[in-house]
Amino acid sequence: MAKTLTEKILSMKTGLEVKPGDIVVSPVDWALVQDTTGPLTVREFLSLGLPKLANPTHTILFIDHAAPSPQKQLSCDHTFLRKFAKDYGAVLSDVGEGVCHQIMAEKYARPGDVIVGADSHTVTAGGLGAFATGMGSSDVAAAFGLGKTWFRVPETYFIRLTGKLQRHVTAKDVILHLIGMIGADGATYKSLEFGGPGAAAMPVTDRLTIANMAVEAGAKVGLFPSDDATLEYLTQQGRSQDHIRLFADEDAVYERVIDIDLAALEPTVARPHTVDNTAAVGELKGIKVDQVFIGTCTNGRLEDLKLAADILRGKRRNPATRLLVAPASPRVMLAGMRMGYIQDLVQAGATILPPGCAGCLGVHQGVLGDGETCLSTANRNFLGRMGNPEGLIYLASTPTAAASAVTGVITDPREV
Amino acid sequence: MDNSRVLKGTAFKFGDNISTDLIAPGRLVHLRSNLPELAKHVLEDADPTFASRVKRGDFVVGGSNFGLGSSREHAPVIIKMAGVSAVLAKSVARIFFRNAINVGLPVLVCDTDRIADGDTLEVDLAAGVIRDLTNGETLTFGKIPDAMLAILNEGGLMPYIKKHGDFKL
Fold this sequence. Notes:
The complex is a heterodimer. By secondary structure, chain A is α/β, with parallel strands linked by helices. Chain A starts with a helix and ends in a 9-residue tail after the last helix. By secondary structure, chain B is an alpha/beta fold. Chain B has seven helices and seven strands, in the order βαααβαβαββββαα. Chain B is globular, with a radius of gyration of 15 Å. Chains A and B meet through α2, α3, α5 and β7 of A and α4, α5 and α7 of B.
């Protein structure tokens, strides 16, 4: 039977011929938590009374969400996770070692893997052809102990990308456009699979940005095929041996096919307070921005530092607009220093934050004041997301964010 | 979940897109290892008075896409800790749905448009029927998938695994 990528991976893992709607129990290749969901996961795992983790070297505890810790309660949560990792032989990725989803892409996720994480943006690894999905603490605790989990095999939407993006239009604009089109619940319980010539021409870094936000349309996974671009990315990370080629069958059956012509896209912005509340940047021009935040698991990669530096080089941020930049990993930060991007950004007035989630989830490093507006390259603009329900969050691409930092108002990057 | 149970309580009505940030605000992340304290702030950013008004057995009634956003299981945990006996919504985000079942909180998908804030509801879990005692209407809700019902019937995923040692779905 012809299979989608989703069906192919779950069939490979379970040894069954799976079809949408089936309930299957699948082995899990990697199980991960971060510091805000990890303590509950660990307590639930411990409550099971199991003597050990099913696969300690593939169980990863990330401390990235509130890192370094701003409060003693969170410091104690971190201590708890460190002790558990040590006692049970799990992998620990501590303060400053980067955002979990970026590190999964750089070091661990392989095409065809099944990955579960107590973080909704675990879907990011779909950019590498991994069936990666976010779950709660109980589910991940079960995966910690049993090395497996259950899935309902999802129906698949195929997103066919054609054409070529125009200058200053990015992968972020593609996914914001798609979510605006189908809605924040437009793909609930579904798998989103991306393909077509536009996807084939896309580097993995862009694919990670798109897969990252599949969950903002309600999807269980966002998947790209594993092809030459995947091999190139894994080779850059020193992991060419982890590559396998993985494509959906030509005649796979999709519940829905959505065509997007990349050449027709414009820089896109999501307005408060839902991700599907999108508009072309031109419609929002001139809205005052108090803070610009470039970073997170969506847009904290080296390519983002380059895009921002190319716009900000030789310029200065607007004095009324704070510019926060958080590289997603030490590898990104070091490459950004080597290439001179970090220097360009600092000279333009940026505050460089340590690798981690920074202000994205409202714990520290960029909490908004009452009535303040942030233009962010993150993936969520829910009320209260950046620590203050009196704040407003707009989501945009890195070029749009950088251009807006220069002018102090929402700005079309094609006009700077 | 005891299927023979009939739940009765007051409806607290919320709108569409009630995110996990509205249910368990990110700014209170330092309380996540102190769930009773976090539960005092449940749904605070959607309705600051909710936590002080809700009584044991009451219902949270949402619109579409309830629970969208984060994987934080703390969200359904603190709804349950606040005494809520079930969440009713027109549609539910995938991760929240699974998390709610995993912590033993029934989630009933039904047309909530006809339920008004403050209505008294009676939910017959076995019959799949919701009676709105205030307006006299009767609603039916979607069947919880068998795999999830098996987990819910044990009181959640951890009790389920402790009992069965594995997934027997």
